[in-house]
Amino acid sequence: MKSAKPSVSEMPADSAGTLERTRKLLSELGDDITKVRDKNDLLILFKKRIKGLYHLTHTIVTLIDYKDETYVPFLLDNEASAIRSHPRYQEMVHSRFSLNEPVIQAVLQADGPISFLLEEIMDLPDSPAFFRVNYEKGVREILMTRLMKEGKPMGFIHIYSDKPGSFSSEFRDVMKDIAPQLSGAVSNIIKNEELLNKEKEKSFLLDFSSDIATVRTKEELARAVRAAISKLNQKSGYVIRRINDDNASMSPYVYDLGAWQHDQKIVSALEKARYPINDGIQNRVLNSPIPLLFNVDREIQRGIAAPYLQSWKAMGFQNFLGIRLRNAETNHGILFLDIEEINVPLLQGICSQISIALANIMANEQISKKQEEQAFLLDFGKDITQARTKQDLQNAVFRVLDKTMHTKLAMIRVIDDDGFHLSPFMHDRTLFEKAKVDFDKMSVNKITIEETYTAQVLASKEGLMFNVEEEFKSGTAYAKLWKTTGLRNVYALPLRAGDKNIGTIWLLADRLSKLMLQGICSQISLAIANIQAAEKLLAYKKQLEVENDYLKEQIKTIYNFSEIVGSGEEMQKVYRLISLVADSNSTVLLLGETGTGKELIARAIHNASPRRDKLMVKVNCAALPANLIESELFGHERGAFTGAIDRRIGKFELGNNSTLFLDEIGELPLEAQSKLLRVIQERELERLGGKHTIKIDVRLIAATNRNLEEEVKAGRFRADLYFRLNVFPIHLPPLRERSEDIEALTHFFVQKYSRNSGRKIRKVAPKVIQQLRSYTWPGNVRELEHLIERSILLATNGTLDDVYIPQHTGADKQEPAYLLNRSLEEVERSYIIEVLKRCAGKISGAGSAAEILKIPGNTLHSKMKKLGISKSDYFA
Amino acid sequence: MKIVVIGGSGLIGSKVVANLRQSGHQVIAASPATGINTITGEGLAEAMKDTDVVIDLANSPSFEDKAVLEFFQTAGRNLLAAEINAGVKHHVALSIVGVDIMQNIGYMRAKIAQEELIKQSGVPYTIIRSTQFFEFLKGIADQATNGSEVHLSDVKFQPIASDDVAAFVSKYAQAAPVNGKVEIAGPERFDMYEVVARYLQHINDPRKVVSDGKPTYYGGEITHTALVPAGEAALGTINFEKWCSSQPQPVA
User: Mind telling me how many Å the CA of A98 is from chain B's nearest CA?
Assistant: First the structure.
């Protein structure tokens, strides 16, 4: 270190002048220094003062950085620096020079200024490069003085000269004296710069904050951030990514790629993507309270597979900064910046503002989205309340799903009346374009509430979400169908009216708002419940109308008996049979002559049966036109045949859970018999023109006045039907066999008709009873009833003392009941006429009637006269 | 190599910085004073640029249980995140012998938390668990002083000189990462009261050391052997005598 000594020849001492000059210089510099505000002013002023007195080329100030024991250029002489044209000048300006080399150590140890000839020091192994750079530009000597702060070296002032020996001892003294002032000035400059920077940062943040405060939309945010970042660094790009609603991925929200031009394809691919949060980059940023600087290549090498790294690399970004956008304890997103300088407080200031803006915008967006959705829901509500038919509902549902959720309806299934099966109710086939056939096949299937998916959905409180991909792995047929839509999730919700499940709704989408979905579903549930209720109501109404019509008819036609009169032995037998069979569901066959009260008995059986609460339905088989029998019995669908303009419920259906009384079963045409037989056997029927079978539960009572066995033998009645019906036959006795009941019946009818006709009949003459008992009653009870009615009308006073038993015409005389009731005279007369007819009117002689009768001709003559037999009787 | 020493201006840090610079490494002495703050993240990313080794010798400014835990967790997280991003190849941290068996003491819990963060970070690491430094003797005496008496136990104690610690840290920092723990200790083992008594005597402190038998360390109860290495440990070269003689003797 031989150069570490004053290498300037001693100047002649001019102590008075020197002192004077020094004082002047010091005071002037002192003044100057107080004025120094700008960094480089100091050097200019310093030089201005020194230059006239001492020779030098330029000066610089360097500062020590103890962090790594280096010193760096701080104040530069931009006007006079000899090395500004040197190719390594910029490198010098930005270099850090080590303190750990002998020259600088010497300066640090020296108490005052110390000079070196560059020639001697520049080639020492550890010497800083600027020695040589200066030398190459003609500088020959350097005078270095350490600047102290708080007793510790803070930096150096370097004074360069192109003439060796420029630095006189007087100058050295001056430098030694002014070094503390210069130190103070440099510290001030540093402080000032710091203050200025802080000020700048603050005003920047303030500006940014007022910019951000006005931000309402995404676009405004983009502009504000762009403006702020361009103030920091002209060309850097940025992207703000937002955490998506799923909390598992992030998507670009606003971005600006800075001044660079980029491949539009890459950009738009980046723009649209959703990146999983835990991709090795985003999660690191979100978890770090401080900004993180990333190197693209390093992250790729590390094996981070985030796709945007490759894109960024392709776009030429090497380093980027990631800062989380966080409001209180919630992360909203990430700001990625393509800068390398990190001013942590400034960035955090910016980011907290962006976070707030982002939160605000998101809140705003959410509110307006909510409002929109609510408006739609309101519309939907309106549409739904107006929906009276399935078609109305379908239109409303399709529209609301499209508008609010951008999805289509996969399926609504509704639980059937049996509470077990689910039938398809509504669906949008267009959703399954790619699997139409499969969908059609599957959608018509009835499923049950025990089907795996359905059971889960119905059991859930607020519906379920199935991931199509996962379900697909389990290989269910439904999942395969879902997969064809390319959508990610299946949303399935129970439709409930009150707390009763009425069906299920199935939607396919990538994502749906749960709240919206529930809102819509509850409305749909209500609408379906309403429509179902309306349909049911209509059906009930129809049934009631039919029943009502039928009842009116019945009231007009049936015997209005509420009781069966008669306690004779024959009737007792009947009663016993009724009580035996009533409780069961067995078919009863009522046999008996006309007018014996078969319908009355049928009603009695029904009324004694557990089905008594329902109306017994009566069909008079004889009264039905042959071609309408089937429709009457089994009903028909609309359009089943010409004239079938409406659906009609048949008598069997009407009598479901009740009793069907088939009167005059013997009159039923053969064709209808076979149909009837089938219904009785299967206990189910199909309406004419109908597609599905209807289960019925009907108790049958059939009645006839014919001898069915004979009808069977004659081929007019099907044997199998007869055996089906003849399960429990009850024979009703004819009235002539229960004459003991005639009196009771007479009194009953007298009472009934005297009340009806307004005539008071108090008494029935015993003679009349006698007359009635002796009559054979071919019309049985019905005849008796009508006879009494007529007699009451013909009665002149309060006593019924005459009855008008019909006088029979000849045609009646062949009736067995009539034949049994003839007098001897009548027998004699009719026999004589018969014989006369056979003998062609010959009264006496051979082959005459007298001969057959074995009486004399005269006797026959007189008998004929007596009996009033004229020629017209036997020549008819 | 470029080496960043967090807490580079502290007792051990400054020595380690000097050692490593001596060995010709580019060393950055990081501390809030030099503009590198592991809590706020200021200057961290820049400092980590092209860094090969990070030595974390930082200590919490507060020793209150919660604050100390928060310091080591926040600083650890930030530092390790920046290291990962910068591709740092070796993280060296200084911890305490017996830290895992003294979890009743808040400071020890915080140090364990710091160790855990390092282990889970994925950065290759060496955790150096050291015994107490000779420099702590005065502090230990002060916190146990009651009137003119110092109440200490016969807990086993094997203090190490900070120069030795710095030498070990420098050595491990320049070696390959252990990805585990190493233990370092002083060359001699004492009863705690005994060594403190000798120290007080050496500095002419009039306080009297009383061995009251309760093994505690800064108020927390510990086992007799908690503070000394259980297994193999690297031992320093400076013993008590040598250390004492290097300490300036107070005039008074």
Answer: 10
- In a mutational test of the A interface, the residue from B16, B85, B88, B89 whose CB has the highest number of chain A CBs within 10 Å is B85
Q: How many domains does chain B have?
A: 1
Which residue type is seen at A595?
G
Three-state SS for B29? strand
Between A324 and A429, where is the model more confident?
A: A324
> Quick one: pLDDT at residue A816?
57
- Domain with B241, as residue range(s), is 2-246
Closest-CA residue of A relative to B3 is A68
Measured between alpha carbons, how far is A578 from A540 in angstroms, rounded to an integer? 33
Tally A–B CB contacts below 8 A.
Answer: 61
pTM comes to: 0.60
8 Å CB contact of A290 and B78: yes
For residue B156, the distance in angstroms to the closest alpha carbon of chain A comes to 39
Q: What is residue A3's predicted lDDT score, i.e. its pLDDT?
A: 43
Nearest CA in chain A to B24: A100
Give the number of other CB atoms < 10 A from CB of residue A451: 17
Residue A712, pLDDT > 50, answer yes
> Contact A526/A498 with Cβ under 8 angstroms?
no
**Residues A494, A502: Cα–Cα separation, whole Å:** 8
Residue A444 is predicted with a pLDDT of 72
The two structure tokens encoding residue B88: 């740092």
DSSP string, A619-653: EEGGGS-GGGHHHHHHEE-TTSSTT--S-EE-HHH
Q: Do B21 and A100 touch (CB under 8 A)?
A: yes
A65 contacts on B by Cβ (under 8 Å) = 34
Domains and CATH numbers, chain A: 15-196 (3.30.450.40), 214-364 (3.30.450.40), 389-536 (3.30.450.40), 558-731 (3.40.50.300), 735-816 (1.10.8.60), 822-874 (1.10.10)
**CATH value at residue B154:** 3.40.50.720
Contact A289 B77 (CB under 8 A): yes
Kindly tell me the burial class for residue A343, based on how many C-beta atoms sit within 10 Å of its own C-beta (0-12, 13-18, 19 or more): middle
Find residue A729's DSSP bridge partners.
A589
| Pick from A181, A150, A167: nearest CA to A61 | A181
One-letter amino acid for residue A172 of the chain: R
Q: Facing residues of A254 across strands?
A: A240
Tokens of A286: 């979100």
Residues in chain B within 8 Å Cβ distance of A72: none
Give me the amino acid identity at A25.
Answer: L
Smallest CA–CA distance from B74 into chain A, residue: A289
Query: Which residue of B lies nearest to A65 if distances are taken between CA atoms?
Result: B34
- Name the stretches of chain B with pLDDT < 70: 213, 249-252
In a domain, B226, yes or no: yes
**Are the beta carbons of B208 and B150 closer than 8 angstroms?**
yes
Please report residues of B whose CB lies closer than 8 A to that of A293: 45, 48, 82, 85-86
DSSP SS3 for A256: strand
